[in-house]
Design goal:
Blueprint lengths: L17 E5 L4 H12 L3 E6 L2 H15 L3 E5 L7 H12 L4 E4 L14 H29 L2 E5 L11 H21 L5 E7 L8 H8 L1 H8 L10 H11 L11 E4 L12
Parallel strand pairs: 1-2, 1-4, 2-3, 4-5, 5-6, 6-7
Amino acid sequence: MTPSSVRISNDRHSTRRGIIITGGSKGLGYAVAKRLARQRDALALCGRDTGRLRSAAAELRHESCAEVHTEALDVVDGDLEGFIERAANALGRVDGLVLCAGGASGGGLAESTSRDWQRTYELNVGHPARALRTCLPHLSASRGSALLISSISGWKPAPPAQYAAAKAAQLSLAASWARELGPQGVRVNALSPGSMCIPGGTWDRLRLNDPAAYETFQREFPGKELPGPDEIADVACFLLSEEAAAISGTNIPADRAQNAPTAFGY
């Protein structure tokens, strides 16, 4: 499909933006979805848990009357390209692509396997490449943007090394793709959150189960407080907006000047 073969719909879809979010059913991905839904953007979300997706969509529709399309999908092993095309068709247009699905497999170097490294690479580097390649005609037609959710681990690395390396690669991807796709009117940026206190997440569990360790970890932040996902979502939504039209090919840290990205130092 070429950019010239994609047309922006002139029906009801043309009155608001269409945004696709991978990993959009929980954590930061869901926080971004909530923020966009409040702006009356139409959303397409994928995630691995059908029940969680159903719950997220119901909450978004209830709170913001948002148009939400969902699909249960593993972005590494599933039909990611098919999801992107089905989402574009459902939305009528695609103005933004948020690549939030990510993570790591395996532990330290001695314990990790080649499969752990491959899986981590495919999740954080392969999935954004596949998604953006498929979505490119739609983003070119709308002069939209793509946002890679990276991490401060991309330049303040800590174990596991496969995660740090994959996140560092995302920063390079954003810079390279911005230059490659800019002539087609597409912006590409990376957003690197620090450690977030997400309800039920790693740091929230540490806060509840080991308050002393959590208090020590807070010292990695000059303000002694971890950011929440809603704060990071505000930055993500700005980078997707017309107000950020001059920003492309860069990495935006959102970490409250965090030092080490773990509770155990470097």
